[in-house]
Write a structure and sequence with these properties.
With about 260 residues, the protein is an alpha+beta fold. It has 2 domains: about 5-180, NADH Oxidase, CATH 3.40.109.10; about 180-255, no CATH class. It is built from 11 helices and 4 strands; from the N terminus they run ααβααβααβαβαααα. It has a 4-stranded antiparallel sheet, sandwiched between helices. The radius of gyration is 20 Å and the shape is globular.
């Protein structure tokens, strides 16, 4: 189909308009609607029908406050009408194996972990799109992985389950602007991966647009270029080294 004949749809429009919401009103969300959104999420594709995920709805006020504290105490968690925790879940797979006296082959651990992470991410994105399609706002919370042991204890997670991310859902108190993404050529390759020279040119182009976007909003004043921001953020992921230990101790990977 040529670009001249491409037509949009409500679903595509919802996806194109996505922007993280970090301020919510105090209007509640009907429990039936929340269940409907999660149900839509579970219709996502899943590898070999493993459905290696679980979603925990945090409704207890004290628990929600504690979880927020483990996630850098972000205001949008406190404000959200609903807060969901998305977990990669191999525990159910282990119970299935027990029923048939089998055990996973340790050689396949990395693949099984990838299956669980991908399955969970697909469900999470489905829920996000469903929520936005009915006028709600969402914000993903990757800080859920800051303290994996404490989160697991708070949510009573068994072995082979890890909280990957949270999601705030609520009625937006703001209408954030859509943030520019990479030029499509940096994400869409044809028949081969692009050369470093091509990608560097695209990164430089994106640096310019991202720098302007951030500068207009007084964000990342130190150096708002995308490459500069990422070069500062990537090393900080070592702060989540506990995730690696957690995965090994909880049976996702060999010790």
């Amino acid at each position: 189909m040529s670009s001249n004949t491409v037509r949009s749809t409500p679903a595509i429009g919802t996806m194109m308009a996505h922007a993280s919401v970090r301020a919510f009103t105090d209007e509640p969300i009907d429990e039936g609607l929340l269940v409907h959104l999660v149900t839509a999420g579970t219709r996502a594709s899943t590898s070999s029908n493993m459905q290696a995920y679980s979603v925990i709805s945090v409704t207890d006020a004290g628990l929600k406050k504690a979880i927020a504290g483990l996630c850098a105490d972000q205001a949008q968690i406190h404000q959200s009408a609903a807060f969901l925790v998305f977990c990669a879940d191999l525990h159910k797979m282990m119970l299935a194996c027990e029923r048939h006296d089998t055990e996973p082959d340790p050689a396949g651990q990395a693949e099984v972990l990838m299956v669980a992470v991908i399955d969970t991410a697909l469900v999470m994105q489905n829920v996000a799109t469903a929520a936005e399609s009915v006028g709600l706002g969402i914000c993903m919370i990757g800080a859920m992985r800051n303290h994996p042991y404490d989160v697991a204890e708070a949510l009573h997670l068994p072995d082979h389950v890890i909280a990957l991310a949270g999601m705030c859902i609520g009625h937006p108190a703001e209408q954030p602007e859509v943030k520019p993404r990479f030029p499509l050529d940096a994400a869409l390759h044809h028949n081969r991966y692009r050369s470093d020279e091509e990608l560097t040119t695209l990164i430089q182009r994106y640096d310019e647009s991202q720098a302007k976007w951030y500068a207009d909003r007084d964000m990342h004043v130190r150096d708002p270029r995308w490459s500069a921001v990422i070069s500062r953020r990537l090393p900080k992921l070592a702060n989540r080294a506990a995730v690696d230990t957690f995965l090994r101790e909880r049976g996702f990977l060999s010790k």
